[in-house]
Write a structure and sequence with these properties.
mainly alpha
Length: about 70
């Protein structure tokens, strides 16, 4: 089972060094949140459909880039 949790590429941000750093900090926060949500998921209690839905929900959390969806 796979999932794609897209976020905007912080390396694509143009602007001052401070703006670029903010973009990387934000991307890190989004990744950290997704990892935390995955680790809190009771994987052993979920069937394949429920897990697929949970992965999709995590992928649609704040900061998701448009056009990316979880795959099972």
């Amino acid at each position: 089972m796979t999932a794609h949790w897209g976020i905007e590429d912080p390396a694509a941000v143009e602007g001052s060094d401070i703006e670029k750093q903010k973009a990387f900090n934000l991307a890190f926060r989004y990744m950290k949140t997704r990892i935390s949500l995955l680790l809190a998921t009771p994987l052993h209690r979920l069937d394949k459909l429920a897990l697929t839905n949970r992965l999709r929900e995590i992928g649609e959390a704040e900061g998701a880039s448009h056009g990316h969806k979880a795959e099972a």
